[in-house]
Amino acid sequence: MFDHGPRRIAAAGFGAFVLLEVIAFLIAQVLVGGTAQRDPEAAVRRLLPAGIDGVVSAPGAKPETLKTPRIMGAQYAGVALVAASDLSSVRTESGERRAPIGGRLLGFRVADGVCEVKPCEEWRTLNPQVVIDGESQDLPGSGDTFVVTLPPGSHTVDLTIDADGYAQSVSVLDDYVDTGNIKLLGRPGQTEKQVLNKTFQAVERTSVPLQYPDGKSYDTFNRVFTVEYVQRRFFLNGQTPSATNKVFLLVNTFYSYAGQSQKYVVADEVTFVDERGTVYPARDMDPDEAVALIGFEIPADVLSGTLRVGGSSEKVAANGVSYTATLTGFELDLDLA
User: Fold this and answer.
1) Structure confidence by residue, pLDDT tens digits, 223-235
2) Is the peptide bond before 119 cis (omega within 30 degrees of 0)?
3) Do residues 121 and 86 lie in contact, with contact meaning Cβ atoms separated by under 8 Å?
4) What is the distance between the alpha carbons of residues 279 and 273, in angstroms, rounded to a whole number?
5) What pTM was estimated for this model as a whole?
6) Most-buried pick from 14, 91, 200, 231 (CB within 10 A)?
7) What element of type H or E holds 149?
8) 102 and 62 Cβ atoms separated by less than 8 Å
9) How many CB atoms lie within 10 A of CB 168?
10) Count of CB atoms situated within 10 Å of the CB of 9
11) Tens digits of residue pLDDT in 189-217
12) CB 97 within 8 A of CB 51
């Protein structure tokens, strides 16, 4: 029999040395950033596919913030899509999960949008839905961040609302905004009142002499015009413009005769001319005859123009006499942006 003891001891010692060398090498590789780096994509591939049915609340998801929110506005509330992007994985009740092969995990976040009647109500009062290739799904009842699993071949994902008689939608996948949306309420700050408080003098000449409060008759009168404010609106006293890409341009303007305090509406003597030269006639926008609120229906993308006061109009005096009034008026440039 041969004595193998010393060889076994030597072999064991050599093996321990090799093991220590390997461990040292691996440690060195980690310290210098060698081959032991992690592969995030490989880590995601090792996850199980997400078993998500429909749209789910995902408070921990972090979709990319949009540079420009996609907003749908209504009379009392609005909803804005503020973030949307594909996600590599999402945390579910059963752990972190990836998208199924060939599919996508789409995350998005919503917030309050624009409304016309302040203070605005919360976005959930509009009951927004997600429509995936024509199929509508309600949003979960809590949270503001959501995830949906898209099967292979999905082409459209839209966030939609139906309020005040107007159906509106924006895409979650790209920057498409439906042409039927209320354009005025698609961006913040478009309905703010612009206070002007401008005063102008104008001369009115009548075709027949008219009796003044002092008992004398005149055919020339001085008017004092005031333009208090301008404002763009979509919903007004139960009225709306004829199309969602139009607005009411309101002008609170009135006049009084020199030495009198009574205010008169001037709808038949006022026009608005936009930057393209299109002329819009005025109309009285308030059912109360004592309220001097006139308006014009103009395209929502008109952001400047001129208010023109003047011209000739047919009138009836207090004694029933008809006459023509010719007004030498004024112009006021308006910046609506």
Assistant:
1) 999 999 999 999 9
2) yes
3) no
4) 4
5) 0.79
6) 231
7) strand 145-150
8) no
9) 27
10) 10
11) 999 999 999 999 999 999 999 887 778 89
12) yes
